[in-house]
Design brief:
The protein is an alpha+beta fold. The chain has 17 helices and 22 strands.
């Protein structure tokens, strides 16, 4: 009998998992670093435990500390969210050995899927289309020789990598010669494994991924595909479901290929199979992600399936609630990742304290957020603040709702990429679906806000912060009400320019 769940993550995904646990009647346990004492997920949980200093390697990546907390708190399940330990077969194995169920595939499945070169070999045996590339265990000289044989441009990847981290575009032999030593060092530091491999780069490709659910009884269903082509340096910014790049015939082929490879590796839980689609309509298998994805929300919006709830049910030993025939995607959904970074200053990460926050709402709008007014944004973690999701009967309606929601969204105190999203959603090429994985970097040139707008935003933030502090002081003396002061400011035209 499952009574308590520990969520081994932070930010918006921790809040999202905790909410579903509450709906299922589970008691919840949160973990946090010293930098996250005031975090939203800490407030949401029934219990919360500090697990170490701010750096992830000393806190959120300390599987031994997290497992000890789970045992002491009496948690039967550990949900890893995404990132951190979600892809760690060692952590999954340690949990299961200790009698705590890891919410995800079996450790041996995660281990098999973590080696991207090995998964390519598996896909080749299944006769799936894969991009020309190399094996895992090649030295520098062999990589250079193979690159000349395959042809440029190429992608240089860490064999144990994930989430687009460490991928480099290589256009020539000399570029590769320079890049290999640095890439090996980065791979060892980030993933603990310096193995590299090469993959042919497809120009103007679309990034398509398929959401799967599988239980321990061998039932596997797909929840349709997602389009994830709006990226920056292989990090997704906007996702949508379904993809307008697929016709019904191509969609059936991709969905069947995804289910086939998942069944071959004995997949259990929620996972994603990723593909690239070239301009001629040929698709190529990329990898399998054995975990929840950031963009699972758009699939939930069009299918009505709570993917996290299904993960927890499967981990509890229960069967899938849905058959493939019962999965009927409806309408269209978009997701914008709201990040604490400045797109007009080379995407520099922004830190500070959120002085004012207004999240959008209304028909077809969902916000998965890990922030609130007064929260400090620190430099230790990923810059993701929230995910804004809209749904509509058609893609056009979903886009119009996203435009409206982005206009309503206000975050003061840190720089965000809201202006970039507003510009993208008003792009004729985006509206027409005429984009690819390098569209943002090669063809999209957003208008930078005027210097006066930056100054106005800074002054607004400073004034609101001053009035908040002054209002709290004067209200205690019975002289003024800070909410009335803020109301006058807004009435006179204050707020986000």
């Amino acid at each position: 009998m499952i009574k308590k769940v520990l969520v081994a993550n932070r930010g918006e995904i921790a809040v999202r998992v905790l909410r579903t646990c509450k709906e299922l009647g589970f008691e919840t346990v949160a973990i946090y670093s010293e930098a996250d004492r005031e975090a939203l997920h800490v407030r949401f949980a029934d219990e919360a435990y500090c697990i170490g200093p701010p750096p992830p390697k000393d806190s959120y990546l300390r599987g031994d500390h997290i497992l000890q907390v789970a045992l002491e708190a009496g948690a039967q399940l550990i949900h890893p969210g995404y990132g951190f330990l979600a892809d760690s077969p060692e952590f999954a194995r340690a949990c299961n050995d200790a009698g705590v169920t890891f919410v995800g595939p079996l450790p041996e499945t995660i281990e098999q899927l973590s080696d991207k070169a090995a998964v390519r070999r598996l896909a080749r045996r299944l006769r799936l289309h894969i991009l020309p590339g190399t094996k895992r265990s090649l030295d520098d000289a062999q990589l250079l020789a193979s690159a000349d044989k395959i042809g440029y441009p190429l992608l240089l990847k860490a064999a144990a990598g994930g989430s687009g981290i460490g991928i480099q575009i290589i256009n020539s032999h000399s570029e590769l010669e320079t890049a290999i030593p640095t890439a090996r060092r980065e791979a060892r530091t980030t993933f603990g494994d310096g193995a590299l491999y090469l993959e042919r780069l497809i120009e103007n490709a679309r990034h398509i991924e398929v959401q799967l659910l599988a239980d321990a009884e061998g039932h596997i269903i797909n929840l349709g595909e997602r389009e994830c082509s709006i990226q920056r340096r292989h990090q997704k910014l906007i996702e949508e479901a379904p993809s307008r790049a697929l016709d019904s015939s191509l969609r059936r082929k991709i969905l069947r290929s995804a289910v086939r490879i998942a069944r071959t590796v004995g997949f259990i839980g929620a996972g994603t199979v990723e593909f690239l689609l070239d301009p001629e309509g040929r698709y190529y298998f990329l990898k399998v992600n054995p975990r929840l994805q950031v963009e699972h929300t758009v699939t939930e919006a069009v299918t009505g399936v709570d993917i996290v709830k299904e993960q927890l049910r499967i981990a509890s030993g229960r069967s899938l609630r849905y058959s493939q025939k019962e999965v009927k995607p409806r309408g269209w959904a978009l997701e914008c990742r709201i990040l604490a970074e400045d797109p007009f200053r080379n995407y520099t990460a922004s830190i500070g304290r959120i002085s004012r926050l207004h999240e959008p709402g209304g028909p077809g709008v969902r916000v998965d957020s890990g922030i609130y007014e007064g929260l400090a944004i620190t430099p230790y973690y990923d810059s993701l603040l929230a995910k804004l999701v809209t749904w509509g009967e058609t893609r056009g309606v979903a886009i119009v709702r996203m435009r409206r929601a982005l206009e309503e969204y206000r975050i003061h105190g840190v720089m965000t990429n809201l202006d970039l999203h507003r510009a993208l959603l008003n792009s004729h090429r985006f509206f027409g679906g005429q984009f690819h994985t390098r569209f943002l970097e090669e063809q999209f040139v957003p208008k930078e806000p005027e210097e006066e707008e930056y100054l106005a935003a800074a002054l607004t933030t400073a004034l609101l912060d001053w009035r908040r502090r002054a209002g709290a002081q004067t209200q205690s003396n019975g002289v003024a009400n800070r909410w009335k002061m803020l109301g006058r400011w807004e009435l006179l035209g204050g707020g986000d320019p």
